[in-house]
Amino acid sequence: MAFERFLLYLRTYIINMIRLFYTILAFCVAIFAANAQNNSNVNKDKKRPTVALVLAGGGAKGMAHLGAIKVIESCGIPIDIIVGTSMGSIVGGLYSIGYTSDELLEIARETDWLNLILDKPDFGSELLTAKKNNENFLLRVSLDRSRVLSSTGGGGIIDGRNISLLFNHLTDGLPDNSDFSKFPIRFACVATNAVTGEKHVFHEGNLVTAMRSSMAIPSVFTPVKVDDATLVDGFVVDNYPVDVARDMGADIIIGVDLVTPMTEDQLANSAFDIMMRMLDFNSMELYKANKEDTDIYIPVNTEGYTAASFSAAAIDSLIERGKEAAVANIDSLYRLAEHLGIDQSAGVSRTRMSCVNYCTSNADVHKEIYDEADEDVSIIKTDSLGMIDFTETLKSSYHFAKHVFQHGALSLGCRFDNQEYAAMQLSIDARLLRRSMIDLNIYGRLGARMVGGISIAHIFKNESKIESGYSFAKKDMSCYFKGFRIADLSDYHQRFIMRYKKEYNKVGYSLGLRYDVDRYRNLLFHKDVAVIAPDLNKEKYFTYFVKAEFNNLDSQYFPTRGTQTEAKAELISSNLYEYHNYAMFPVFTFKWRTSFSPNRRFSFIPHASTRIICPGDAHVPFALKNFFGGLHNGLMKDQQMEVAGVPFLEIVDSKAVNVAGFDLQQRMGGNHFIVAKFDAMSLCNNIDHALDKEALFWGCNLGYHYRGVAGPISLIGTWSNRTKETGIVLNVGYYF
């Protein structure tokens, strides 16, 4: 029995071993067949010519590349190599790591390129003072010698920090030292060595640094330091780098060139284009050779556009022109696809690298960004930087912006209106002692209001500060009463201030003491109104004050969501404890506005403001009386309130001014706005009479506004039943 069981076990074992053998044999045959097929495909691919796409530089005109790529994709042509210069390097770099043409089109259309390129910090993540500066100054340049992004110490007006932040986000996860030949599409881009004038071709390294170097227009963007080389825009030496693609082994070149026919008269009207054209001469021979060496040449007519044409309408038009130029060469593209043996109906399959960080979401969706510093919540529109998951980037932007500007900044602003005419302001912020955190600010303004000031602040670790300062102003003022011009005068004003201030990105408060001195000269009365004393000469007074602010508006000029509130209490004294033998008297100010947007284009903006003086038996000095009207809050007088329908500065003896109303804001296209404003106003000395018929007035504005890179351009018509006249207001630039 034992022997029979042994034979049965042996037979079973032999059968199992035979089955295992055949299983292994079948597996090996399958692997061999698969390898044979792969080798066949590889050999087939090796037989296919290598196709390269070359993208020329041209700033905003490079948006045309996106339209051309869309058409090339539709022909099913596989791209093995992509080479670009300047904007061509940006499009090419992102396309090479796996971004699709549709994704790049969305990013291009939804990104606020002007704010991005001009390095304006994100409005929603800035501290309150920085928010005001961001929409008061046309240009801010860091004076920090480290210049973190470029690591060069200067050489350009714009650091390009926002561009680098965007690039870092879009390539998040990509190794700092990458081999560009390992990308799904082999990539290279061109920069220029600013010292030697030689061409610098990036085949490896940090992709963000490569793209940022290739687009660093000399004297505009700060150069980029790479090892021992200082690099600027590649258009200086090779704006259409077909030769680089050939060196990488390209057999067939598809080139997208940005062509701008320009007459001598047109060239003479543009200093920037003159500079670009002169730099083009340096590489003209190479450009001609590269153009001749292109197999399928796609010239895009960019006439009418410049390197700075980043408006939404211009971007859409340039993309369409890129498509049209590629379609004009569609027969050549189809012949190439046929020559390559491509099934055009299959389209182009794309490989995405793990670093591709693109999030498709509805443009109306808003992101809640939590700032770790103050655990506060900021609402950011996706269309401020496009359909991108920009959460971590905004956090980085907030902290980086503070780093860039906290060690010093030069800020410049200018504006024009039909009342004050031209005005200019300049501010210099400098960190005197980094370890002790002492900041110095010097400010100057030229115009009908001449202002100069200096302040010194000690910054604590929690970013609160104690500040003291002195300012001087000469204001040439015209005062109106019920629409009539009653007086002209010059106000020579001096102010000494000391305050404690603490602010976050949406909340701030301050308290302190001011001493003001006003001397009035050149009084010229046009109408006898008791509101201005004929012997007006000199006034001086102390003011204790406390102020609190909240602001989470997404824009100061054209808000679509958020709320702004300001409350201030002041106590007026002539000698720190009384006011000319009377008790010190208080002044209260409150302002509020909020914005609701039922859709992406229309906004309803209700607002209210009030200022109440409680003097008792004391006489209210001219400098502290209630003023309203004019172009904007606080332009001629700190307490000045903007009121619809009143285009000029009005003065009243009323102790209380109350204003309530709403704006209807309609966006037309990308940056055009029609705004209707309606206000009701009450002027009274006693709250019991606030709604009396003689105390009530109303007014309205209807205006066209353009949101430009230098600030809003506005043309506004006004009317009120107080002035009983129509008025026209023209303004160009930020209010200050």
Share of β-strand residues? 35-45%
- The number of strands is 33
Number of helical segments with 4 or more residues: 15
Estimated structural class:
alpha+beta
Give start-end ranges of low-pLDDT stretches.
38-45, 146-154, 266-270, 358-406
Q: What is the overall shape?
A: elongated
Report on the structure:
- By secondary structure, the chain is α+β, with helices and mostly antiparallel strands.
- It has 15 helices and 33 strands.
- Helix content is 24%, strand content 38%.
- The model is unreliable at 38-45, 146-154, 266-270 and 358-406 (pLDDT under 50).
- A hairpin with a 5-residue loop joins β6 and β7.
List keywords for this structure.
single chain, 16-stranded antiparallel beta barrel, alpha+beta, 736 residues, 24% helix, elongated, 33 strands, 8-stranded mixed β-sheet
Q: What's the structural blueprint in terms of helices and strands?
A:
Elements: H1 2-47, E1 51-55, H2 64-74, E2 81-85, H3 87-96, H4 101-110, H5 113-117, H6 128-134, E3 139-142, E4 156-158, H7 161-170, E5 178-179, E6 186-193, E7 199-202, E8 204-205, H8 207-214, E9 219-221, E10 224-226, E11 229-233, H9 242-247, E12 252-259, H10 264-268, H11 271-281, H12 284-292, E13 296-301, H13 312-327, H14 330-339, E14 366-371, E15 376-381, H15 391-406, E16 408-417, E17 421-433, E18 438-446, E19 449-459, E20 465-481, E21 484-503, E22 507-525, E23 538-551, E24 562-573, E25 585-595, E26 602-613, E27 626-629, E28 649-652, E29 656-668, E30 672-684, E31 696-708, E32 711-720, E33 726-732
Parallel strand pairs: 1-2, 1-12, 2-6, 4-9, 12-13
Antiparallel strand pairs: 3-16, 5-8, 6-7, 6-11, 10-11, 14-15, 16-17, 16-33, 17-18, 18-19, 19-20, 20-21, 21-22, 22-23, 23-24, 24-25, 25-26, 26-29, 27-28, 29-30, 30-31, 31-32, 32-33
Helix pairs in contact: 2-4, 2-13, 3-8, 4-13, 7-8, 7-15
